[in-house]
Write a structure and sequence with these properties.
Strand content: 5-15%
Helix content: 40-55%
Number of domains: 2
Order of helices and strands: EEHHEEHHHHHEE
Strand order of the largest sheet: 1-2
Number of helices: 7
Largest sheet: 2 strands, antiparallel
Shape: elongated
Structural class: alpha+beta
Length: 167
């Protein structure tokens, strides 16, 4: 016995001519509201408000950003701006005055690009975090048998790579 598997479940059906029900609702609401405003306000004000309503209805009905409907983007934006924001920043050394001379010792912490790229700095931090003791880079590399070598690209950028010796 064969069963038919539904496909294209993400697409909406075209109900009113070339429009989906949602698109038709946006356009019909904007048209109805604009029609009502024509009899209530002056002509120049009606024209300005109608232009805004038509642009809003067209964008809600047809615009998709990264595959998501524009209404979802608007709701996310309103939610982001409506909710309270909490910004937390805690400096590493709050007692230190923030000047170029006082921050210079912190900038030269001894971690070089090759250590970061090869992962040695991360291994050192992880090792000291787990055991509370610090193991040197060379001791770790001797234990694991991994060898790293730095090289310079044609662009002048220095990088580190793991060296594999086939014996």
């Amino acid at each position: 016995m064969q069963f038919q598997v539904p496909q294209f479940i993400e697409t909406e059906d075209k109900i009113v001519g070339p429009f989906t029900l949602r698109q038709f609702a946006y356009i019909a609401f904007a048209g109805g509201f604009s029609f009502t405003l024509y009899f209530v306000v002056e002509t120049w004000l009606w024209f300005v408000i109608s232009a805004f309503l038509v642009a809003l209805a067209a964008s809600l009905a047809f615009v998709r950003i990264s595959g998501r409907p524009f209404i979802h983007i608007l709701m996310a934006a309103f939610g982001y701006y409506w909710k309270s924001q909490i910004y937390v920043w805690q400096p590493e050394h709050p007692e230190l005055k923030k000047s170029t001379e006082s921050l210079r010792p912190l900038q030269s912490s001894g971690t070089v690009v090759e250590d970061i790229v090869s992962g040695k700095a991360l291994r050192d931090v992880w090792q000291s975090l787990q055991t509370g003791t610090k193991i040197s880079n060379q001791q770790f590399l001797d234990r694991t048998g991994e060898h790293y070598q730095t090289f310079q690209r044609l662009s002048g950028e220095r990088d580190a790579a793991r060296r594999i010796d086939y014996r």
